[in-house]
Each structure stands twice: as C-alpha cells, then as structure tokens.
Design goal:
heterodimer; A: mainly alpha; 6 helices; 85% helix; rod-shaped; B: alpha+beta; 6-stranded antiparallel β-sheet; 5-stranded antiparallel β-sheet
Chain lengths: 143, 747
C-alpha cells in the first residue's frame, strides 16, 4: 500500500515543501503562524487519506479550516462562559445586597415595634422612607 | 504379494531418498523407538502450451530415465474459466522429477508448467494427509517400504495427541562472536552436563555418546548454524574423533546457503543453515520467531503449514502460508502454476489514488487519558478475507458482501486457521491464569496469528502464487469500512473516540470504567460490522505521545498505559526497539512499571516521584561507571553493501571496522557497537576487544537515557529539557513540576 502512489504523509510533505519559497518570503512572525496552520492540517491525515482526493491540498486546507473553526468555537464558548459567569456573579452580588437590605429592614422594623407598637400601615411607610434616605445618603457621600 | 506389518507412530522427518523415493522417520506409539521407512513416491507435473511445442516435448522426454508415463489430461487452472489441455509427465520419484523439469524448462521456456516446483512435504500431505507430527497407521513390507499410510488425526485438532519428544539443548557458555568459548552446556529433561572444550577432542567423544544414548529428536542450539555445528565438525575432522549428528548415519549434515532478502520494508540476512536427517536442528539465534512462540509455536507452525520442523523454525510465516495455499489448491485438484502470470489490471490515476490505500491510521489525542477502553477486531484482515470471500480467482466483494458463494483458495486456506486460533484462545480462557497449558496454548496461538497476519500481506506480494493486488486492496478497503462503522457506533453511543489504529479503537465515556460498561457497545459493533470485536482491556490510564521532532504532532503508534489488571502496554517507545541498549530499555520499563502502580489519578503523583527517582538513580549509576559496556551495546543494522553508503552512520562505521578485521558483513546483518570517547567514536562489539567503562562516551549514553526517560515522563509535564538540566546539575535535587493534569485531578 502506498507503494504505487505516494502515501498521505508523503503528499503532505510535498505540499509543505511546495510552500517553502512562500514561507521564506514571509515575515518571521507570519512564518511561525504558517507553521502552526500546517500542524493543524497534519491532525487529519487519516481523514484526508480516506477521502482519496485527487488534490490532497484541498483536504489539508479544509483540515486547517476545521481546526481554526474549532478554536473559534472554543474561544466563543469560553467568552460566553465568562459572560455567563460575570452575569451570575452580578446576580449573586445583587442577591446578597437585597438580602442585606431585607435583613436590615427586618431588624429596623423589629426595633421600631419594640419602641412604639403603633398601626401597621404607618410602619411600612416609615421603612420605605428610611430605605430611601439610606440610599440617598450613601450616594451623596460617595467620592 | 510380500507380507506386511502394521506400525503406528508420529511422523518426524521426511526427505528425498535417491533409491526408494522418500525416507520417513517415525516415533513409535508402541515402544518409543525411532524408526525409518522408505516409500516409493511417484509424482506428476504438467505442461501446457501450443500443440506443436507439447509434441516436441513429448518426443524429448519419452523414454527418458525416471519417466513412468506421458498422457494428455484436462485440468483446472485456478485463474482460467475453462479446463486446460495439459501434458502430464509422471515420474518415478521426486528427485528425478526435479532433474527432468530443470532440463526441459531450459529447452522449452515458453511452455507453462504446473506442479513443477512443489516441495515433497507439500506433495505428501496433499496425497496422504500426513504432516509433521501426524499420528499415522502404516502397513510396511519386509524391505521396510511403506505400502499404505493412514493418518489418524488432522492439522486442525485443538489438543492433538503429541509424541514424547526428546529435546537436547547444546549451548556455548558465551557468545562465540565475542570471545573464546570454554565449554558447552548440554541440557535435556533427563540430565544437564557441562563439556569443557579440550584440544584432544575428549568432549566430542562424550557428546557423541550422549547423542547415541539419548538419541534426541530435536537438537536446540545457540549459534548452531553460524558457529557450533561448523566448529564441532571441524574439530571432529582435525582430532579424528567421530561425531554423528544425524540420526540417518548414511548422510552428512546438509548445508543451506546464506541469503539476504527484502521483507516488509526491512533487509533481512539469514546465515547458512545446518539441516540434519532423522532429527531436527533448531538454532534459536537463527529461528526467526523463536522469541515470539518458542518450541510449542514452532511445532504448531510445522503442523498446520506442513513445512518440515527445521524449516518451520527458520523461515518467515510467509513461506508457511504459501505452502498451505498450494495444499488447498492440490486438494481441490487445481493446478499450481510454476510462475505467476497474472498482471495488475489497468487503473486510472483516480482509481489508483482511491484503491492504493492501507488501513485507517488516526492521529490520537495527545496526552494522558484515564478509564479508556481498547477494543480490537479479532484477526480483522483474515476475517474480512473469509467474510468477503476475497481470493485472486473469484470476483471481488462489493464492500463486505461476497460476490461469489464458493470460497476461493485464500479464504479456504484461512478459514480453518482462523477458527483454530479462535478456538485456542477460547480454550485458554478455560484454564486458570498460571496453568502451564496457558503458556503452551498462547505460544501456539501466537504462531497461528503470524500466519494469519502474513496471509493478507501475501495477497499483495507480486511473486506470491495466489497474490493479486486488487484482492489485497479489497481487504484494506473492507478494513477501513469496518473501522468507520465501529467509530459511528461508538459515537452514537456517546463515546469519545481517542484513537483508531487499523483494527483497534480507544474509546472513553464519563462513568464507564468497568469491562461491563462496554459490553453493549461491543455487541452493537459486532452487529453493525459482521466481524467480532473484543475488549482488549480498560486502561487505568494511557498516554499518547507526540512526535519527537514536533511535540504538537501526534504519532499513531507511540503510547503506553496500564490496564486495570496491572498489565502494562508499551508501543513505539525505546524499550520496544531492538537498537536500544539493554540497560536503557530496562530503565524505561522500570519507570513505566513504577507509574503503573498507580490505581487512581491521585496516586499518580507519588508514583511519578518514584519514576523520577528511578531515572535519577540510573543517571547516577551511569555517571559513576557502574554500568558495564555489555549492557550498553547498541544493536544496529546495515541494510546495504558498505560501499553503497554515502553517509557514515555509527552502524556503518562499526561494520567497516568488522570488515577491516576480515569479518564478513552482509546487507541485513545486525552490527553491534558501543559509543567510545575520542577516535574512533564507535567500536564494533563483535571485534572482541576488551573495553573498560572509562573508554565509553558516557555523554552519548546520558542523552539516550534522557530521551528514553522523557518519553515516559513528558505526558506528566516533565520534558526532556528538565531532565537534561537535572543531568547537568550534578545531583542537585530539583522539584518536580506540578503538572496541570495532576492538579486538575486532585481538584
């Protein structure tokens, strides 16, 4: 097998050699990137061999596209996950804040109940006022 | 009619005899005696071609000595649709047939000859069904000639009744190519003896007496072909002390010429062979597959292939499978062509690109993986040949569906072989692991495995009688199809396919870590492909290694891992290479085995430290000069004549030293050498000069050790550079890098 025609690895090496002049003319940074792309194409030699395409370079290019797309999707997933995590963190922060407020209000209302146990409606109104005042005061004092 | 008597015994040896036709040696089933009988054995061969030429041939051979009859017959050539008109030439003995055939082949080169170059063992089994170690019932006349023979068992019996063989081992006390042999170690099931070599030939007398008294059936030697037997015969001649190595005392030892040939991408050298008559000589150093399947495998090989035991031990399995195919053809009454006449069919470029492909070899996912199952198709290519009825003379299958009902020569040959191997493997499972039968059966199964492997290769071999490249391509096409179907099933079942290699898949799935977790997958693959796939085992962990040249590129066959049973599997590493010094291979195996102790990923870290310590200790021993030169010998090879080399590799430099010292260097020969300091930078080991440790180029060996160690440690985050750094730090303790893998698993 692979004695009459070149093996898939041999055709890959031929294609790589064919790029030598192009690679030499590239800037050094680009040469490194081209090398990385070629490595990507090598990851799918078995599939390229199975495809038995008359122009194996086509398969290598598709392999590169596939690997680049895989990286793109991976990056997208990571970014998405990061956004999700950020959102989660924000929601958690809000949740904590709301809990603190609720606790604070509960404690205040209990205290007021002890000091003056008047009618229910008035108490609710007072709490709202205290909350607003707190928020306003903090805001004003902010640097 | 002369009186006859009955005899029952096992056939041990069979060879040409000028007077009677054949000589056959048997081991008696009644009284353990060894008996030789003669047998008349007339044989026929055939010629086909234009009528005028056949008429001229008739006139030439008519009335010649040894010709019993000439006749016109209609016979079948496996590659022809119609029956052929052939001239049958019946000769009184195989010896006269060989002689006459060579004569007429020169006079009538254009005729097509059949059954002209068959070995006598092949002809004999085709006619009587008798094979090496077959139990036979004979009728023998008063002159010792066999009148009738009936075989009481067959080649495919799983546990055949075998004769009580007498095996005598004769080994020199040291490698004769490295120094002077002082004594011979003689070993049998009854005694052990050391014979000191003396100039008067006293030891020859003792050896001759042992041979006469013990009367071995099989003589197993080390360097028997290349040194021992020539040495003994020369000593016998010089001292005048007689030494009878043959059981048939009328014969001298027969020598077969040395040869060099190309096989499976390698140049192979086979030295001169010493063949005995009436008993068998096996040189362990020249026996091709001895390390793989030992005596039990060799005898199994001889039984199924019908090759004489001496030959079965030495030749490649290809010759065995070729003999089996010829027997199948003869049993079907099909002519066996002398020379192959089939040509490759015309193909377009695209057809060639599509068909000239091997098995699927994937690039694995580099790194360390846990809880991975390896599943293998059992003898995939032979199974495809049988399932698809792939044979050169029948239409090729469409995919895996056979195009013809009657099995062709190749699948017909393979079927019983394949079934016997499967049956032996099943039998092995019925014994406890440590049972002595297990090793015996494994060696036999291994011999059969090689025959099955080679059968596929022979389909594509241009000189094989039953080879046809299109059939060979149909097998690999089937193999690719089967593997892709298996991949589809695995992925449908939610498994990740980490790697695929011709007939094996490495798969994993979260939560699957016991053999039972893979049963359903195996069942589904069996159903989808029509072939049998088997769970090779579940790895605790397996590491797929990258290329040494570029760590980003995966390599298909470079991995190691440990199964849940604790068994370690290593492929493509230095420890598996024949040119790696014994000591370095040992260090690498030890490191892997230390890692193999880890049952869980969390245990890997401490085992990794042990493996690293092992490397440290080895490095220290090497630098301290504790490793002897013989442990550091590199087993190189020269593939061509030395004059053909433009670049001078270490092996070539060593081979040139041997040549300069008057030693013969043939293409394919192994050349052993060590690296030394200064000039010359290598010394051929077989020159025999004594080397001190100080003379060795230790830097070279440190580098070889680092490469071997880094193959094992790199998947755990310890690259060769760190090891090099450590080797230069002269014993300074470096901390192991915390690998991301271990940390991830600890988390």
């Amino acid at each position: 097998m692979g004695r009459t025609i070149a093996s898939i690895t041999q055709t890959w090496q031929e294609e790589e050699a064919a790029l030598n002049r192009f690679k030499r003319a590239l800037r050094k940074d680009d040469q490194v990137l081209l090398d990385e792309l070629l490595v990507m194409s090598r990851l799918h030699l078995a599939e390229a061999s199975y495809a038995s395409n008359l122009y194996p370079l086509d398969m290598y290019l598709i392999a590169i596209l596939l690997e680049v797309y895989k990286q793109l999707k991976d990056t997208q997933r990571k970014l998405y996950n990061r956004d999700v995590l950020k959102d989660q963190a924000r929601l958690e922060e809000e949740d904590v804040f709301l809990k603190l407020i609720t606790n604070y209000l509960e404690i205040s209302s209990e205290r007021q109940q002890v000091e003056a146990p008047p009618q229910q409606k008035e108490h609710e109104l007072q709490v709202a006022e205290i909350e607003a005042a707190c928020a306003y005061t903090d805001f004003e004092e902010a640097p | 009619m002369s009186q006859t008597h009955s005899f029952t015994g096992w056939l041990l040896d069979l060879y040409l005899n000028q007077e009677q036709g054949l000589s056959l040696w048997f081991i008696s089933a009644d009284d353990d005696s060894r008996v030789c009988f003669g047998q008349r054995f007339p044989v026929s061969f055939y010629a086909a071609g234009p009528n005028e030429t056949l008429r001229a041939l008739w006139k030439t051979v008519s009335g010649r000595q040894g010709v019993l009859s000439l006749s016109r017959q209609r016979k079948r050539d496996v590659f022809e649709d119609q029956l052929l008109d052939v001239m049958a030439i019946k000769m009184e003995s195989p010896a006269s047939q060989i002689k006459l055939f060579h004569e007429i082949e020169e006079i009538f080169p254009d005729l097509t000859y059949y059954d002209a170059d068959l070995t006598i063992s092949t002809r004999y089994i085709a006619r009587y069904g008798a094979f090496p170690l077959a139990l036979c019932q004979l009728e023998v006349d008063q002159e010792g000639l066999i009148q009738s023979i009936q075989v009481l068992n067959d080649r495919w019996e799983l546990l055949p009744e075998l004769p009580p063989l007498r095996v005598l081992k004769i080994c020199p006390d040291s490698d004769p190519t490295r120094g002077t042999v002082q004594s011979l170690l003689i070993h049998s099931d009854r005694f052990e003896q050391r014979l000191s070599l003396d100039s008067q030939g006293q030891y020859l007398q003792t050896l001759d007496q042992i041979l006469a008294d013990y009367d071995p059936d099989i003589l197993v030697s080390d360097w028997g072909d290349s040194w021992l037997i020539p040495f003994l015969l020369k000593q016998s001649e010089e001292t005048g002390v007689p030494l009878q190595l043959n059981r048939d005392t009328s014969r001298p030892v027969q020598w077969q010429n040395e040869t060099t040939y190309f096989s499976y991408g390698h140049i192979i050298y086979r030295p001169e062979e010493a063949h005995l008559f009436g008993r068998c000589h096996i040189d362990r150093k020249a026996a091709m597959m001895w390390s793989d399947y030992s005596l039990a495998g060799t005898l199994e090989m001889a039984r199924v292939t019908t090759l004489p035991i001496e030959k079965a031990a030495r030749v490649s399995p290809g010759q065995g499978i070729s003999a089996m195919q010829v027997i199948t053809a003869l049993e079907k009454d099909v002519l066996v062509p002398y020379q192959k006449r089939q040509f490759e069919e015309f193909k377009t470029g695209l057809q060639l690109i599509q068909s000239d492909r091997g098995g699927m070899v994937y690039q694995p996912i580099i790194g360390l993986h846990t809880d991975v199952a390896q599943i293998d198709f059992i003898s995939m290519y032979p199974a495809i040949i049988i399932l698809g009825n792939i044979s050169p003379e029948v239409p090729l299958p469409n995919g895996l569906t056979p195009a013809h009902e009657d099995l062709g020569v190749v699948p017909l040959t393979l079927k019983p072989l394949y079934e016997k191997r499967v049956a032996i493997k099943q039998k092995i499972r019925t014994y406890p692991e440590k049972h002595p039968m297990v090793a015996h059966l494994k060696e036999r199964a291994q011999a059969l495995k090689w025959l099955l492997v080679v059968c596929f290769g022979f389909l594509g071999y241009k000189n094989a009688r039953y080879g046809r490249i299109e059939a060979h391509e149909a097998v690999t096409r089937g193999g690719r199809e089967v593997l892709l179907r298996a991949k589809d099933v695995a992925e449908e079942e939610g498994f990740e396919v980490l790697h695929m290699y011709v007939d094996a898949l490495w798969v994993k799935k979260k939560g699957c870590n016991k053999p039972g977790h893979f049963t359903e997958l195996i069942k589904k693959i069996n159903h989808r492909t029509g072939l049998t796939i088997n769970l090779d085992g579940v790895y605790r962990w397996v590491a797929f290694l990258p290329s040494k040249v570029d760590p980003r590129i995966p390599v298909a066959n470079r991995y190691f891992g440990v199964f849940q049973s604790g068994e370690i599997k290593v492929r493509g590493l230095e420890a598996r290479r024949r040119d790696t010094p014994v000591w370095i291979a040992g260090v690498q195996r030890e490191m892997i085995s230390l890692l193999g102790r880890a049952c869980t990923p969390s245990e890997l870290k401490s085992c990794l430290q042990d493996a690293f310590n092992c490397f440290q200790q080895a490095l220290q021993d090497l630098k301290s000069g504790l490793i002897q030169p013989e442990q550091l010998v590199i087993n190189g090879k020269v593939s061509y004549a030395l004059e053909a080399y433009k670049a001078s590799t270490a092996s070539v430099r060593a081979a040139r030293q041997m040549q300069a010292a008057g030693m013969a260097v043939k293409p394919g020969m192994r050349v052993r050498f060590v690296y030394t300091r200064g000039e010359p930078d290598v010394v051929a080991w077989d020159l025999g000069s004594r080397l001190e440790v100080d003379a060795l180029d230790l830097d070279k060996y440190v580098e070889l050790l680092i490469r071997a160690a880094s193959s094992v440690l790199s998947p755990f985050g310890i690259p060769a550079d760190i090891l090099r750094e450590w080797s230069l730090s002269e014993g300074l303790q470096l901390h192991l890098p915390a690998t991301s893998y271990l940390e991830a698993n600890e988390g």
